[in-house]
Amino acid sequence: MPSWQASVLNTILSYVARPSISRGKAKLPLSQVRQRLLELDKRWLPWPEKLVTASIPLQHSTLLHYVLLDDTPRLGNLFYIRGGGFCFKTPHAHARLVADISERCRLDTFIPDYRLAPEHPYPAPCDDVLEAYLHLIELKGSDNLVLMGDSAGGNLALSLLLELKKRHLPMPKACVLLSPALDLAITGDTELILGADDPFFTIESLLRLRGAYLAGANPMSERVSPLQGNLADLPPLLVIAGTRELLLQDSERLVMQVKASGGAVESRFYHNMPHVFPLFHLLPEALEAREQIADFVLSQLIR
After folding, report:
1. Which pLDDT does position 97 carry in this prediction?
2. Active-site positions?
3. CA torsion sign, 9 to 180 to 114 to 72?
4. Which stretches of 1-68 are DSSP H helices?
5. pTM value?
6. Which domains are seen in the chain, by residue range?
7. Locate the Alpha/beta hydrolase fold-3 domain: which residues (predicted)?
8. What is residue 234's DSSP assignment?
């Protein structure tokens, strides 16, 4: 049974988050929605006290280096790709999650601050993420490197793995995906999609963000919809999602396809949880998921 905190959060998301992303009657352009989200993120979510950042300039974007101020020896590095529907970012919310994961897993963290749609549609985010990853392995190597991404960041993470495999480039040691958006072609079960009681997304908001990112690109391309790619020979995966998600099928299909290809994948679908629920640290289920992530990551790094 889900916690009372989860029930409250789902109600709040239904009344606040879902209408703000859908176009509805407000007709706010995505750039204004982005600015409002950034203001709310900064106002209500304090930056983690022990987390400091440095910026590494790239050709069109920036690679952020997040460092926890403690004396714990590091086991490796985390390359975390933030979500936000390809159009938004919430630096404070993600910093709080990343700081916790970094501390639990004893990792330094690098975050690609990729360009956002609609101003910079596909392939700009993919290109920025690839450039940031290649720069990171130049700096730190690929040993004990963990890849992680949520939502649209999960899409970019799996797309990155397929591109690395295609180019015969060094892979990360493991990959964690939280509520990944993997099928922009929307080839799943339509009845399940329409019947989803998602407190965060509507079909309208999904199509709006999808259209802003694609800008006419082919949604069946494996770089856009990595579920369309060959998922064999990937590093071990952990997939976490909530059962109330509009995008739940993406995670379920990923797990099935990786298993069918002979790959190593673990998964957990949390009952009645919303999209990327591990971000919300007040949820008992979020803390449980973070502990699961730490167990998985440490099991891959310490052998």
Report:
1. 97
2. 151, 245, 275
3. positive
4. 4-15, 17-21, 30-44
5. 0.95
6. 4-301 (3.40.50.1820)
7. 78-278
8. P
